[in-house]
Input
Amino acid sequence: MIRIITRTRLAAIRRDAAQAREHKREVQASADAAYARHVRAVHDLTAEAEAADGKAAEADARAHELRRALDQANLDLAAIRASVIEQAARIEALSGDLDAMAEAVVLLHYGKLHSVHPDRPAAERHAASFGVGPGGWTPVADRPVEESAWVISPLRKWAVADGGDAG
Output
């Protein structure tokens, strides 16, 4: 079928076609802008995701380092606790020795150390084995200890004090 088109109709079709092309350009520009926004958003989100992955990896490494430090600190703490227990046992033993030595005495022969004894009766028994009678333990009041044959004296008097002086 053949259709005859008038000039007015042709002008209207051309006008409609021009409007359609203009509308197509507007829609295309809008689509291009939306696509550009979408690409920027994808780029930004990708950058944020990569940064978050990096921070997560750093946090994991730091957590691993802290876990290792905590494990070492726990090992050190266990060793220190064992040392404290050992030291407490040693202190207890030394306290017992100190209690035992509180009454310790020395037996001097002409001012020279002859022997150390846990108490005065033990020192007297030992001196008696050398023939020293019960009255031979103390020096004459005005005589120096070096001039007395046998002297029993508290160990604390002859112990070395802080600073190295005899007390």
